[in-house]
Amino acid sequence: MKLDEIKGLGSKRIQCLKENGIASVDDLLTVFPYDYVDLINLSPPSACVDKGNVAVLGTVIKAPKIKYLRKGLFLATVVFKDESGEEFECGWFNRKYLKNTLPFGKRSYVYGKVERFGKKLSLNNPTLITATENMPPIFPLYRPIKGIPSSVFIKAIDAVLDNVNINSYLDDSIKETYGLMELNKAFRYVHRPPDRKLLDKAKSSITIENLSCNIALYSILKRHGNKSHVYKNNFDKLNEFTDSLPFKLSGDQSKAIKEILEDLNSPKKMNRLLQGDVGCGKTVVALTAMLYTAMSGLQSALMCPTEILAKQHFNNACKLFEPYGISPTFLSSSISSAARREILSAIKSGEAKVVIGTHAIIQDDVNFNNLSLIITDEQQRFGVKQRGILENKAQNADYLVMTATPIPRTLALALYGDLDESQIHTLPKQKAATYTRFVPQKKVNDMLKYVLDKARAGEQTYIVCPRIDDEELISVKNLYEKLYNSALKPYIGMLHGQMSDEEKTNVMSDFSFGKICVLITTSIIEVGIDVPNATSIIIFNAERYGLSQLHQMRGRVGRGTTDSYCFLLSDVNDSDKAKERIDYFISCNDGFALAEYDFKLRGAGDFLGTRQHGDSFFSSIDRSDIDKAKTISAKLYESEKFKTQILSNTHGGQILFIENLTLN
Ligand code: ADP
Ligand code: MG
């Protein structure tokens, strides 16, 4: 089944889906709901105060009233009455079409936090669910996709569920032994749960099945892992290189380099994870390995999740490798097609020894001559498929994964197989401290005043918003607009994922050179950006991020000689569990400890967050799922049938069995 065979999806909408990483029916099926709303056994709103997010059913008794707060910002309020006769009010910001959606007399569900102000009950920015005749007992919420009405999206998923059959790699007997749900059923229940119990079972069945296959596959690949390329032991030159660096390598850096070189010189292929906090200096370790490879006449590739990061590494490499007569090659989607042709031919001939770039490196028409070392930076941001494709480009290449989001040991095993690990614990001598502070989100104006003071003093600030463009949450575009009409106007710039690579690079370079003083952005800046003059980072709705992600963002400041601040803005209450997490974050500056803490509390979601839309689903992975998966994978590892099936799978690398879809 193809996307264009689904009713309601024309070419325009298919394009919108593609822009959100949904290019096939398989992709669509794995866009899991981010939350579920219970629509049965509802309580009246007065019984829901302080109960977290709940659904309330009501009828509109006063149609929307609009109040303009200031330019570009208005509040629409609607009064509802619930079945038991209680009245409550809902407010939404900047919702133009609410009048059409919620006319007088309309019955609707609203989903959010019920608050009490005196006698008044209200919900602030709740999610609206239109009541229709056959409401399911549990309503799935999908992340909104621009250009796709949610009703269309839900129907599209229904169509896929009705028309495809998912093949499993697991025998029925294994499923029975471990209590796993049949896969087609599991996918149906994850999208259309009949009740919470079956939903949980469906989620964990999919998770366990997927993890089992991955772990088994990695073990099989490892068994097959002898390489044909040989490095030349150019250690003298290499020592010369490390001695010539503008700084002295830390003990952990030297140890990591030593471990990597030992791997490279062994006949077994390297499969190593290089972990270490933001700023610990992983780049130079990677570049040393790339130089060693180039001096052996072999090719290496460094793949980064963003163009900005790739460019940064590339510039670094150009400078450092120049004395050795090696000029690195840069490849990204923003390269013109004429230049690209030339680059591709240099890569194919083997003349381009050091290739640094984005996903552009793994496109079909990129062929290497003797690709021997593959390094991926900030791995967790790559899709599972991309990683596989890269591995497929060079079956026996040595493989180094770098991550600044330390991955809990058990999870690393599931994600990358049983790989070796180098850890960098020490940070290069820090010249400045970074202080972390909690700020109630309602004090936003004080915060902005602080930003203005800093800007006037010539210090730079990152402001991170949870969304690019959103009516309900603070978003990059809205905040930019707001500040554009304030004293901050001359200082601001914005950076987000909807901009072209070229625009992003320009903004980032303006920020690096101080032309932009206040950068309003999304968590896109979480990865590797290095601007020493940035001394504050302000993170709105901090409770929404994983602690590892927050830690990454915090690492963007404190890179120069001036003490720096990380402000976490949130409207969580002191009694909330979420506040406890934030407090822990404030008290702890060790990326490894933060990772373990969050893994225990929130599961694996934050570490797998390559696709925003799957987040809540993946969060459900826990240790017991992984333990089960390990046991099952051991059986798969022994199975000839599995081995044949999986190795003939063109995707190579890590697979999702969902790629094994066939039509009914
Ligand atoms: P990350 O591990 O986050 O990728 P980077 O490799 O970007 O960290 O390094 C952060 C900064 O620290 C860079 O400016 C780099 O040049 C510098 N650096 C790396 N190693 C050392 C060291 N041993 N001593 C001093 N500075 C270092
Ligand atoms: Mg880095």
Structure, described:
There is one protein chain. With 664 residues, the protein is α/β, with parallel strands linked by helices. It starts with 10 loop residues before the first helix and ends with a strand. The site of adenosine-5'-diphosphate has 17 residues, from helix 10.
Share of helical residues:
25-40%
Radius of gyration: 26 Å
Q: Give unreliable regions as ranges.
A: 609-617, 650-664
The side-by-side strand order for the widest beta sheet comes to: 12-13-11-14-15-10-16
Mean pLDDT: 86
How widely separated are the two ends?
A: 9 Å
Strand content: 15-25%
- Helical run tally: 23
Content-based structural category: alpha/beta
Number of strands: 23
Shape: globular
Largest sheet: 7 strands, parallel
Bound molecules: adenosine-5'-diphosphate, magnesium ion
What attributes characterize this protein structure?
single chain; 664 residues; alpha/beta; 7-stranded parallel beta sheet; 6-stranded parallel beta sheet; 23 helices; 23 strands; 21% strand; globular; binds adenosine-5'-diphosphate; binds magnesium ion
